[in-house]
Design goal:
With 433 residues, this protein is an alpha+beta fold. It contains eleven helices and 15 strands. It has two domains: 281 residues, L-amino peptidase D-ALA esterase/amidase; 123 residues, Ubiquitin-like (UB roll), CATH 3.10.20. The longest helix has 23 residues.
Length: 433
């Protein structure tokens, strides 16, 4: 048996977004970037008049737009329509983004498609743009048709409420089982990247608490920037950011029918300036800031998982390649036994080892090391003694770290999840009622 006093923690890196060179904007969100206004109102999709249920985001001028969408074959009607509006390539030009909560408009057939199209038409008529420049999203109960009369009255109401301070209301309006809105914004200077005197901002909002394990998508998120970025370059940047943030979140291993993430670029921080070019310092700075926004929102969603009491960060190192690092981390993060052990404040390393062993990743068990909350619990495939009292003390932290080194290579990854509590079952047992 190894002597715990001689064993150092793995100290694997990663977890929180890198904010180097960025300025966090206090109370920042989807309208922190120049050129955008938003609103959140109670339109009537939900019975509670105190609850906002319609969000509207509008660009002052047509903006570059890029998106990622759910890969769930049972995708919702607004996903289908928004894809069409971006010409099937997930990037183009858009003027507005509308989200209703309470009804998902999924599994609604041709009627649902027509409803999503009509939603875009209503917004276009009110905003003064083609319906093809309107991105639509819905969230809520599956299999229920939208009440279009609610859009007819709600969209003008939201348009009248649009303001540069409306991001917080919009973030509230897209919530479902979320316990609080999720929003953030960061800015960076253009002085050292070829845009002297300019300050660029990226801000966003997101919703997500359950039915979360994206596949090249996110839950529902709207992100804006005032940087000058063309649609195709914007799309490449968004795909990279989503892959390393929203796609590294799981609450319950379920991929939603409605997942979508939209990124809009107004260019308003540097009117008439040359767009950021691939390979340039400017685009690198933009990617860094976008990664920070997406990473911050992703962690917020994991921490607010339905019934969650703890955010869990799973770090896997020493994998043979990136794909194997991902499947090992994802299997740990999705394990109900691991998640319930965390809820019970039980440093049960055997459940972690068991999850890694069934993940499909290639490694030799005698090469594996595991830490829980910085406490070494396994080295060389064998348990090491640790203080249960110290483990219980560390379980009081709001974020629980699980570190695993497979000893099979140099690839590594990070995933975020949460514990499973009694409340998760309660929420999902009576979700429709």
């Amino acid at each position: 048996m190894n002597d715990a006093n001689d064993i150092r923690p793995l100290n694997l890196e990663g977890g929180a977004p890198d904010l180097t060179g960025l300025t966090a904007i206090e109370n920042g969100g989807v309208t922190s970037a120049k050129g955008f206004k938003a609103a959140g109102v109670h339109a009537g999709f939900r019975k509670n008049p105190e609850r906002f249920d319609l969000a509207l985001l509008v660009a002052d001028e047509p903006a570059a737009c890029a998106a990622t969408f759910t890969q769930n074959v049972f995708c919702a009607a607004p996903v289908t329509v928004s894809r069409e509006h971006l010409d099937g390539v997930s990037y183009g030009t858009a003027r507005a983004f509308v989200v209703n909560s309470g009804t998902a408009n999924a599994a609604t057939g041709s009627v649902g498609i027509e409803s999503a199209k009509r939603t875009a038409e209503i917004v276009g008529e009110v905003v003064g743009c083609p319906a093809s420049e309107v991105m639509v999203a819905s969230t809520g109960v599956i299999g229920v048709q939208l009440n279009m009369a609610t859009f007819e009255t709600g969209v003008p109401m939201a348009y009248d409420a649009l303001s540069e301070d409306g991001g917080a209301a919009a973030a509230r309006a897209i919530m479902t089982t979320d316990t609080h809105p999720k929003e953030c914004a960061f800015s960076f200077s253009g002085d050292e990247i070829g845009y002297p005197g300019a300050t660029f901002t990226i801000g966003g909002m997101a919703k997500g608490s359950g039915m979360i394990m994206p596949n090249m998508a996110t839950m529902i998120s709207g992100i804006t920037t005032d940087a000058p970025v063309t649609p195709d370059v914007l799309h490449a940047a968004l795909k990279q950011a989503v892959a390393n943030s929203f796609n590294k979140v799981t609450v319950d291993s379920d991929t939603s029918t409605n997942d979508c993430c939209f990124l809009f670029a107004s260019g308003a921080a540097a009117p008439g300036a040359e767009p950021f070019q691939p390979g340039s310092p400017a685009l690198a700075a933009f990617q860094h800031a976008l990664d920070a926004v997406c990473g911050t929102l992703a962690r917020a969603m994991a921490a607010d998982g339905e019934g969650a009491t703890r955010l869990i960060t799973v770090r896997v190192a020493g994998a043979a390649n990136d794909a194997q690092a991902d499947i090992a981390a994802r299997t740990i993060a999705n394990s109900p036994l691991v998640k319930t052990a965390i809820f019970g404040h039980d440093a049960n390393w055997g459940r972690i080892a068991g999850a890694v062993g069934r993940s499909g990743a290639d490694f030799n068990q005698e090469d594996v090391s595991i830490d829980i909350m910085g406490l070494p619990v396994m080295r060389a495939g064998l348990p090491v003694p640790f203080s249960e009292e110290e483990a219980l003390r560390r379980f009081e932290r709001p974020e629980i770290d699980i570190d695993v080194d497979l000893g099979a290579g140099t690839a590594r990854t990070v995933m975020w999840t949460c514990d499973f509590s009694y409340e998760y079952v309660t929420i999902n047992g009576d979700y429709r009622t």
